[in-house]
Structure formats: C-alpha cells, structure tokens
C-alpha cells in the first residue's frame, strides 16, 4: 500500500486477513484520510460482501449498492477526517448469512450466544492494531484518537457482545466516542437488543454516546415481535440511567422492506 500520507479517502483497500486476538483472523477493508481525528469501525449485516461476490449471487446482486466497498466510501463521507475499518464476518453461510464468531459465540447462521468474558474487546483491539500496521507500519498514533463503532443489522451482535464484555475502566472503552446500533436484528429467538439492567448500568456509567437508528423492517416484523419490545426497553432503561442515548425511527409508517432496511446506512448521520 502507498504511504498513508497519500491515501485517498475514496480508495478502498482490502487488507486481506488480519491477525486478531488468540490466533483469530478477520478480513478487513480500509479507507481514510491522512492524520485522522477519529477511527470508525463497521460491522455489516447479512448479504453485504465484496461487489464481485454479490454480483455472482442470484439474489444478493439486487443489493449490490450496499456492497462493503461502497459502504466504506459512504462511511468515509459521513465521518470526515477519519480512518474507516470494515471488519468482515468470520464466515458467510451460503454467501449470505454473516457470522461474527471471532467476537461472539455463534451458530453457522450467525445467531449469537452472548455471555460475559468472550474477549471481544481484545479481538477488536488486536485487529485495529494489526490493520493499522498493514496500512502503514509507523502509523500507530492513529490508535490514540477517538473511536466510533457501528453495527448494522446482524453486525449489531458484535456491539451487544462488546457491552457484555465492557468494563468502564478498560483502555479501549475510554477511547470510544459513540456506539451506533443500526436496525439490529438476527434470526435467534431473543436478545436482539440488550435489556439486562446490570449490563446497561455499565454502559451508562461510561461517557459513550449511544445512537439507535431503526426502521419498520425490524420493528414491524410480525414474526419477531420481541425485537420492537427489546429495542424500546433498551432505550428506556438507558434513559432512566441518564445515559447519553438518542433514538431515531426512519421511514416510520412506510411498508417494511429490505431496501429501506439498507437505506438506513445513508440516513443515520
């Protein structure tokens, strides 16, 4: 890769497999500007892949607009003066269903089994450190700037696990400026949103800004009615705990569909 001083934020670099914590590895994409003021980490949802993979898929090609490279550029535009890192899932079942098993114990479909002590922060820290080394070996100071972490759809399971593993005095936690839950959802039977009081108390005790952006695609799912109930409780409990939380419902009143679900990516900032 070229020296980071000449990096063009519109150019997306595939860093390939990056070493994480305890022998785990994830593929990472990067784009950004020189001398970042903050870092952005993104965990995507089902379907999102490299453009050529999506184009080769009978169904997923219909959503090619939301491929990971386009998403990386979109985030770079939304967060100027930033370094953007997209961490790919550990696996994509049937080239569609994302599983982030390197962050949270999950089944092949990506349904999480949350519990404390899964070392998700260590995984994130190692991936960031080694990704920066691949971008430019001498650019470690970029790890000292504030951090925004974004989960979209299935990617929100990683944010949830980070909360399970959160300690208010953790060094990386102190760098987090904002956590963004974008229309979180998965195929499991519950725990799409965190409702455990003790976990939310830890989150509320930090200085982290919590942003929730949701659409009828998840909130209006008649087959998964628990999503709306859990999301409402997540926000209400954090507000009662005086956390810095905002909640935005996009496309309210419109018919739920996958296009609007993806479109939250363009609307959330």
Percent of sequence in beta strands: 15-25%
Strand order of the largest sheet: 1-2-4-3-7-8-9-10
CA-CA gap between termini: 30 Å
Mean model confidence by pLDDT: 92
Major sheet details:
8 strands, mixed
Give the CATH level 1 class: Alpha Beta
Task: Classify the helix fraction into a percent range.
Answer: 25-40%
Radius of gyration: 17 Å
**Based on CA inertia axes, which overall geometry fits?**
globular
The unreliable regions are 1-5
Instruction: Give the SSE string.
Output: EEEHHEEEHEHHEHEHHEH
Describe, in plain words, how this protein is organized in 3D.
It is a single chain. With 269 residues, the protein is α/β, with parallel strands linked by helices. It has one domain: Rossmann fold, CATH 3.40.50. Helix content is 31%, strand content 22%. It has nine helices and ten strands. An eight-stranded mixed beta sheet has the order 1-2-4-3-7-8-9-10, sandwiched between helices. The chain has a two-stranded antiparallel sheet with strand order 5-6. The two termini are 30 Å apart. The relative contact order is 0.13.
Summary tags:
Rossmann fold; 22% strand; alpha/beta; two-stranded antiparallel sheet; globular; 269 residues; C2orf69_mit; 31% helix
What's the short version?
With 269 residues, the protein is α/β, with parallel strands linked by helices.
Secondary structure topology:
Blueprint: E1 13-19, E2 25-32, E3 38-43, H1 51-55, H2 68-78, E4 82-87, E5 91-93, E6 97-99, H3 120-135, E7 147-152, H4 156-164, H5 171-175, E8 176-182, H6 197-204, E9 209-214, H7 216-219, H8 226-240, E10 244-249, H9 258-267
Parallel strand pairs: 3-4, 3-7, 7-8, 8-9, 9-10
Antiparallel strand pairs: 1-2, 2-4, 5-6
GO cellular component, one term: mitochondrion
Pfam family, one: C2orf69
